[in-house]
């Protein structure tokens, strides 16, 4: 397969073929997403929680994002790579945002950036795209603003909310974003918004009428302990945690009983050499 570009994604959109996007936060998670055929790999700021054990995404800083971006970039031979601008790195001014976006490209080795927000971010999106950096928008539920939104709530559930979502999506498109994430929006609203745009929408908790889908890798791969809260839209496609626990527990048992390492996992020595040594 050839490296995915903005043009590849635009062709998928034109042909009505859903775009596949998945998060990754390091070399192995980027590698597996790439090999499995994801068109876009996103170094989301969700890595604050899934890779760094932080409470929420507001804690992760640019330097930390850059380290993870570089690791994923080395793995993504085919997938188009984008990264979130972390909270605090783009809200102050379009200049600050452009400087941060340049760091994601130059130091993080990504191909594009994603940033949260609607109408109010239009000048910022414009500034970054005019510098030749592809921008992915993110409207609907914007987790970096959870304190202002009053938590993780579905957006666009009222007529007024849906109209605001449409205004935001149109403004993000007009500002030059080539694609946008729609998060936690009723399916019918996401479908209607998608139809009114001429750039692809990538849904997460937004139904199947979007131009593509994105999920957080550790969620869809089931790489988390039993009992953890999962949003309604997450489908668990595998049980990586369960498989890993099984393997580690068996390893522990076999070390304790000296079943591991058995001869097949051990380096041999010629009998004569050994006899000489034992003298
Ligand atoms: O940070 C993230 O992983 C995201 C996706 C869930 C869209 O923004
Ligand atoms: Na994010």
From TrEMBL:
<comment type="similarity">
    <text>Belongs to the PanB family.</text>
</comment>
<keyword id="KW-0808">Transferase</keyword>
<dbReference type="GO" id="GO:0000287">
    <property type="term" value="F:magnesium ion binding"/>
</dbReference>
<comment type="function">
    <text>Catalyzes the reversible reaction in which hydroxymethyl group from 5,10-methylenetetrahydrofolate is transferred onto alpha-ketoisovalerate to form ketopantoate.</text>
</comment>
<dbReference type="GO" id="GO:0015940">
    <property type="term" value="P:pantothenate biosynthetic process"/>
</dbReference>
<protein>
    <recommendedName>
        <fullName>3-methyl-2-oxobutanoate hydroxymethyltransferase</fullName>
        <ecNumber>2.1.2.11</ecNumber>
    </recommendedName>
</protein>
<keyword id="KW-0566">Pantothenate biosynthesis</keyword>
<comment type="pathway">
    <text>Cofactor biosynthesis; (R)-pantothenate biosynthesis; (R)-pantoate from 3-methyl-2-oxobutanoate: step 1/2.</text>
</comment>
<dbReference type="GO" id="GO:0003864">
    <property type="term" value="F:3-methyl-2-oxobutanoate hydroxymethyltransferase activity"/>
</dbReference>
<dbReference type="GO" id="GO:0005739">
    <property type="term" value="C:mitochondrion"/>
</dbReference>
């Amino acid at each position: 397969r050839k490296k995915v570009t903005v043009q590849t994604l635009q062709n998928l959109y034109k042909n009505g073929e859903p775009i596949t996007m998945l998060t990754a936060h390091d070399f192995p998670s980027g590698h597996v997403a790439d090999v499995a055929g994801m068109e876009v790999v996103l170094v989301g700021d969700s890595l604050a929680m899934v890779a760094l054990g932080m409470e929420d995404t507001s804690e992760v800083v640019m330097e930390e994002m850059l380290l993870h971006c570089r690791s994923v970039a080395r793995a993504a031979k085919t997938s188009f790579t984008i990264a979130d601008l972390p909270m605090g790195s783009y809200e102050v001014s379009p200049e600050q945002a452009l400087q941060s976006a340049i760091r994601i490209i130059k130091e993080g080795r990504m191909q594009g950036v994603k940033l949260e927000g609607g109408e109010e971010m239009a000048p910022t999106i414009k500034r970054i795209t005019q510098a030749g950096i592809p921008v992915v928008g993110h409207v609907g539920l914007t987790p970096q603003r959870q304190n202002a939104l009053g938590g993780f709530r579905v957006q666009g559930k009222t007529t007024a909310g849906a109209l605001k979502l449409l205004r935001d999506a149109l403004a993000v498109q007009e500002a030059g974003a080539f694609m946008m994430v729609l998060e936690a929006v009723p399916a019918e609203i996401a479908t209607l918004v998608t139809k009114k745009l001429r750039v692809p929408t990538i849904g997460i908790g937004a139904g199947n009428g979007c131009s593509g889908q994105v999920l957080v890798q550790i969620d869809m791969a089931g790489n988390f302990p039993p009992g953890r809260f999962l949003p309604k839209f997450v489908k668990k496609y595998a049980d990586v945690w369960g498989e890993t626990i099984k393997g580690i527990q068996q390893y522990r048992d076999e070390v304790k009983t000296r079943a591991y390492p058995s001869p097949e996992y051990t380096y041999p020595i010629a009998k004569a050499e050994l006899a000489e040594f034992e003298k």
